[in-house]
Amino acid sequence: MTASTDVGSRRAGQKLADWYHGLHPGYRLPLRWGLIGTMTVIAFFDSIASLVQTTRSGGLGGFVWTVLVVGTLVAIGVSRWHRTELPIHDRQTDVIVGTMALVLALLINGVLLGRYALYFHLLRLDLVAMWLYALSASIVLFGLRPVMRFAWVWGMVLLLTFPLPYYLTVVALGGGKVAAGAATLLVSGVGTGIALGRTFRRGLIGSLVSWAFGGLILLVMALLFDDAPLLAFQLIPAVSTMCVVGGGFFLYARRGAPKRILDRKVEPLAARQVWAGVPVVVAVGIALAFVRLPPTVSVVPVIPLAPGALRQGQPVAVPPGWHLTSMRTYDWVHRIYGSGADLIRQQVTADDVNPDWDTLGRPRTVMIDSVTSERPFSFNVFPARVLYDVAGARLSAPRLVDLGSGVEGQLVSVVDDTLLVTWNALQITWGDSEIAQRVLLLAVDNHDPEAPFPEPSGGVVPTLGTLITILLRGNAADTDRAPAFKDAGMLTQLGREIVTAQRIPVGGAR
C-alpha cells in the first residue's frame, strides 16, 4: 500500500513537472516570481506589518516603500538590456549556494534580532534577512547567472533598504520632512543611473538629470505643500523623477522605432531541476514565519492629558520639594527627533536633606533631560542613549517602575568608566500619536555639588559615532550584569512627583 502510494506521488509530481516545463517561458516566469513573492510575504508577514505600522505612525522607516518601487523600476530597465547567455543545464551549484544563503537569512532573523532588540527600528535587520531570502529563492529558482545579471539592482536594494545609512543621512541634512525627501533622492539618483547604465556615460547623465529633476520637485513640495505627510516627501520626488527621467530616455532611445517596453526575448528553461529547490524555499519560509520580532522597549504609552499639556519647548514642571538651579536647551536634537524638537536640561536640587539619600547631610541634585517631539515614533527609532556619549559605559537591563496614573518608568544602572562614576537613570515616556515627551532623570553616586553628569553628545558627529559604536559592539559587550540601583528610591519618588505635577487631568486643574 505504501509502495503504490509512493509511486503514485512520484507520478503526480512528474506530471506536474512535465506540465510546468511544457509551458511557454513567458508563463513560467510569473509563476516562479509568484512563488517567491508569496513565500516572502508568509515568511516575513510580521516584518511587513511592522513596516506598515511604522509608516502609519509617521516614522522615517516608510522610505523602504520608495526603495521597493524604485527597485522594481530599475529591474525593468535592466531587463531591457540585450544580452545573450549560454544555457546552464547543471543546477547543483545554484541549489547549494541558494540553500546556504537561505540558512543565513534564518540565522539573521533568529539570532541577530534578539541581540539588537533595543535598536530594532534603527537597524531593521529583519529587512536584511527578507532581502537575503528573496535573493536566495531567486538563485534556487532561476540560477546564479540570471540573478547576477541584476547584481547592481540587488546590491542597490540591500544598501538602500538597510535603514541606518538613511537615518544618518537625514540627521546630517538637518532632520525634518525636506531632509527625509532629499535623502530618498539618493534612491532615485542611484536607481536611474543603474537602469540607464548600458554605458557609463548614459548612466551618469541619467543620474545627474534625476538628481536635478527630483530636487526641483522636492523644492516645489517644500514651498507649496509643506504640510504634506512625511511619506509624500519620501515617495513622490523619488518615484516621479524615476518615471519621468527613465521614460524620457526610453522614448529618446526608441525615437522612430516601435515603443514596446517588454520586447526582450525570454530564453527557454535550460534545466529541469527547478523543482528540486522548491521544497527548500518553502521549508525555510515556513521556519522564518515562526520567528517573532523583538518587543519594542521604548513604546510610547497613551495617558489622558488635556489638550496643550505637552508642547515643544516647554520644560518639565518641577514638583514641590525641589527647586530649579539651572536650565539649558539643546536645539540640535531636532535633527534626530523632527522639526521643533529640542532637549531641555533642568538641574534641580532637593529643598531638604533626606538621610536615606545622603548620609553626610547633603541635598541631592538630579538632572532632568526632556525631549518633546511631534514625531513620537522617533523615540522607538532613537533610544535615549544615542544622545549621550556612553559608548564605553556598561548599562544594566531596564527595571520597570510604577509611577502612578498609568505611567511606567524604566530604571537602569550605568557604570561609566569615562566619568569614573556610577549613575542611575529613570526614563519616563508619555504622550499620544501626535506629540510625546521622553523624560530622563539622572543621578550620580558622587553627591558633591561639582559632580560630573553625563552630557548630551553635543551634535551630529558624536551622535553618529555613538550609533556606529553600538552597531559594532552590540548589547552583550556593554551590559552591566551586577547593577547597583543606589538611587532607585530617590528617582522613583521624584518620578512620581513629576508625574503628578506634569499630568493635567482632562477637564480639571493639576
Keywords:
single chain, about 500 residues, 18 helices, 8 strands, disordered C terminus, membrane, MFS transporter, transmembrane, transmembrane helix
SSE layout and pairing:
Layout: H1 2-21, H2 25-43, H3 45-56, H4 63-79, H5 92-115, H6 120-123, H7 125-142, H8 144-148, H9 151-161, H10 163-172, H11 176-195, H12 200-224, H13 230-253, H14 274-289, E1 322-330, H15 334-337, E2 342-350, E3 365-373, H16 378-381, E4 394-395, E5 399-402, E6 408-416, E7 421-431, E8 436-444, H17 460-473, H18 488-502
Helix pairs in contact: 2-7, 2-14, 4-9, 4-11, 4-13, 5-7, 5-14, 7-9, 7-14, 9-11, 10-11, 11-12, 11-13, 12-13
Q: What this model shows, in words?
A:
With 510 residues, this protein is an alpha+beta fold. The chain has 2 domains: 8-289, no CATH class; 322-502, no CATH class. The protein is 51% helix and 12% strand. It contains 18 helices and 8 strands. It has helices spanning 2-21, 25-43, 45-56, 63-79, 92-115, 120-123, 125-142, 144-148, 151-161, 163-172, 176-195, 200-224, 230-253, 274-289, 334-337, 378-381, 460-473, 488-502; strands spanning 322-330, 342-350, 365-373, 394-395, 399-402, 408-416, 421-431, 436-444. Helix 2 (25-43) runs parallel beside helix 14 (274-289) and helix 10 (163-172) crosses helix 11. 38% of the residues are buried. The model is unreliable at 297-302 and 504-510 (pLDDT under 50).
